[in-house]
Amino acid sequence: MSKILKVAVTALITILVGVVATLIIVIYVNEPEEASGEQSIDDMVSHSYETPEVTTDIKDDRYVQVQFQVITDDKKAMEELEKRDFQITNLLIKELAVMEEEDFQTGLDDLEETLKTNLNEMMTEGTVTDVYTIKKILQ
Fold it and tell me: Does residue 31 have a pLDDT over 70?
């Protein structure tokens, strides 16, 4: 009888140790990389797309040259953006055509947000999380 009791206690302790080890692994090792929900800078770089440089006229007969860095949530979304570069250029030309010099000088945040919204509407793989202006020239 004591032999059966020793085997049962040993089995129970082994199972308990296994459960504790599993809990420690699940809680500490599988912790998400970014608890805040934001991408790390490495993820942003690996999931970003640099738009073609666009030179066009704006509403008050001046010329602008712009370029953007578009950050996506995954690699497939970035690859889709690369295929949609002609649509991005078209979108930028249309948005810039209705802007005046002052809008272009002070309204880049609005342009970035509009670009983000319009790109997300046409995307089928992933989403655009941020748009940054990386080049801006007004002539």
Answer: no
Beta-bridge partners for 70: 49, 131
CA-wise closest residue to 44 among 34, 52, 53: 34
Q: What is the CA radius of gyration of the chain?
A: 26
Burial environment of residue 44 by CB neighbours within 10 A (0 to 12, 13 to 18, 19 or more) = middle
User: Among the listed ranges 35-44, 86-95, 100-109, which one has the minimum average pLDDT value?
Assistant: 35-44
The pTM for the full model equals 0.69
String of b and e for 95-123 (b: at least 16 CB within 10 Å)?
Answer: bbeebeeebbeeebeebbeebbebbeeeb
Q: Does residue 100 register a pLDDT over 50?
A: yes
Cα 122 to Cα 90: distance, rounded to the nearest angstrom: 13
